[in-house]
Design brief:
Blueprint lengths: L1 E2 L2 E3 L2 E3 L4 E5 L6 E6 L3 H18 L4 H17 L1 H12 L3 H21 L6 E3 L10 E9 L2 E5 L7 H12 L3 E5 L6 H13 L6 E3 L4 H10 L3 E7 L2 H10 L4 E5 L5 E4 L5 H13 L11 E5 L3 H13 L19 H16 L3 E4 L3 E2 L2 E2 L2 E4 L6 H4 L6 E7 L2 H9 L3 E2 L1 E5 L3 H10 L4 E4 L15 E2 L2 E2 L4 H7 L1 E9 L2
Parallel strand pairs: 1-5, 8-9, 8-11, 9-10, 11-12, 13-14, 13-21, 14-19, 18-19, 21-22
Antiparallel strand pairs: 2-3, 4-5, 6-7, 7-25, 12-24, 15-18, 16-17, 20-23
Length: 474
């Protein structure tokens, strides 16, 4: 067990209160971290505000160098970071090391984008009043960015807040999830070693309802970027006041399997998409709509592949599925399964729980009003639903409060374009599932799935202001 300090104003500090961080599989305490007070948050914001004077004037090549060095340090420490993610998040090794590799790429992309932030000319003489004038705009950093991140990607979802902010000359006050804060502290070590100025990155740890809200409401914080639940996202919009907000919220992701789909490719991908990180991913596959002509065959093969998954300790390299983040969450998911069965759903496989570990669960005959269907389950639970026509399947997918991403398997180009035109989501994945994401693509949702887009270049656009310049030559 290690006692950690937190990082405020370029200094490693104690706060007087602590939070225990546990191994989600064994229950063992693996670290003790400082719990921030409102006073600590105030210090962090003040430090970030002061550091902004240096960051906003730092040349692009210098910001790029810092980010590239940070990316390389992440790669050098990949085994250490992945092991920590396994333990504090309960994520299986193969997904933890995958997250570290993505974290490296996110910082690498940011180092490249730091050199490409620019504006464009405006044809002033398109207006009679603009004749004899020259116009252009530039993008300028906003100031202090407040980042609030969840437990399920303790490195890469932090990277998606921090790296674009640094690339664009902003400073950051980060509140990581209290259940998985150690990875963020390792990142602070890396950014310090990479040469980031003191105060440009600060970490405050504690409950979102306390210190998170302090960050959201503070007038010195010019933007909030948040990943988490729709309920908390809604509260942030009500508290933030006049500042920019990016919200990456929930989903009950769906994928459609047409009868011409390549089932040998679709089934293993769907299994992985439903149960990676115990289903605790915003774009986890929760609803599978399968054409009625192949539904029985698909379900049988899908269930068999699910039953072959290894459930166990995340640090063991061949584990496919570890624990959920919290036993109460596992109990909640178990209750949703029982509720669905009582309402007429068929349990195909799984459904049992031991502590935080919920066996990967497949349901059939679910209806749209069951909580496992209409709400974000955020657990290793997937429902297989039959449909008659593609139009009907797309209606089912769209009949949701959420709209983050969706997938469709088909080899018919007309069906592909119909799906692209009619799915009400932020991203349509063709011959893949809802879970696909690489870190430079625009990422975000419609409806209750959020506001704005992540993906490094797109996050930079949301973390900068446009400054218009006009030169009168008359």
């Amino acid at each position: 067990m290690k006692h950690y300090k937190t990082y405020i104003g370029g200094e490693w500090v104690e706060t007087g209160q602590t939070i225990n961080v546990i191994d989600k599989y064994t229950g063992e305490t693996i670290g003790v971290v400082p719990r921030a007070s409102e006073k600590d948050v105030d210090k962090a914001i003040a430090a970030a505000q002061e550091a902004f004077e240096e960051m906003k004037s730092m040349p692009a090549y210098k910001r790029s160098e810092i980010l590239e060095k940070a990316a390389n340090l992440i790669k050098e420490r990949s085994e250490e970071i992945a092991t920590m993610i396994c333990r504090e998040a309960g994520k299986a090794w193969k997904y933890s090391i995958g997250e570290v590799n993505r974290g490296y790429e996110t910082f690498k992309f940011a180092s490249e984008e730091a050199k490409r932030i620019h504006g464009e000319t405006v044809p002033m003489d398109a207006s009679m009043g603009g004749v004899g004038r020259v116009g252009y705009y530039i993008r300028v950093p906003m100031g202090v960015i407040g980042g609030i991140t969840p437990f399920n990607f303790p490195l890469n979802l932090v990277a998606h807040k921090v790296a674009p902010a640094i690339a664009s000359g902003n400073t950051v006050v980060l509140k990581p999830a209290s259940t998985t804060p150690i990875t963020a502290l390792i990142l602070a070590e890396i950014l310090e070693e990479a040469g980031l100025p003191k105060g440009a990155f600060n970490v405050v740890i504690g409950p979102g309802g306390e210190i998170g809200e302090v960050i959201v409401k503070d007038y010195r914080v010019r933007k909030i970027t948040f990943t988490g639940s729709a309920k908390v996202g809604d509260r942030i919009t009500r508290l933030a006041g006049i500042k920019r907000v990016t919200l990456e919220l929930g989903n009950n992701s769906a994928t459609i399997i047409e009868k011409d789909a390549d089932m040998d490719k679709a089934i293993p991908r769907c299994v992985d998409s439903a149960f990676a990180n115990s289903g605790q991913v915003c774009i986890s596959l929760q609803r599978i709509y399968v054409h009625k002509d192949i539904a029985d065959e698909f379900t049988e093969k899908f269930a068999k592949a699910t039953e072959n998954l290894k459930v166990g300790n995340p640090v063991e390299r061949d584990t496919d599925l570890g624990p959920m983040i919290d036993e109460n969450e596992a109990k909640r998911a178990e209750e949703w399964i029982k509720e669905a069965i009582n309402q007429g759903a068929q349990l195909v496989t799984g459904g049992t729980r031991e502590g935080r570990v919920l066996k990967p669960t497949v349901l059939r005959n679910t209806t749209k009003d069951m909580r496992v269907m209409c709400m974000e389950v955020f657990a290793p639970i997937v429902s297989i639903v039959e449909y008659n026509t593609l139009e009907e399947a797309i209606q089912h997918v769209n009949d949701s409060d959420y709209g983050l991403q969706a997938g469709i398997y088909t080899n018919d180009i007309r069906k592909i374009h119909y799906a692209i035109d009619n799915l009400d989501v932020g991203g349509v994945m063709i011959n893949d599932t809802s879970i696909f994401r690489v870190d430079h693509m625009p990422y975000g949702g419609n409806k209750m799935s959020g506001i704005g887009r992540e993906g490094v270049r797109f996050a930079i656009e949301e973390m900068t202001n446009i400054k218009m310049v006009m030169i009168n030559l008359n």
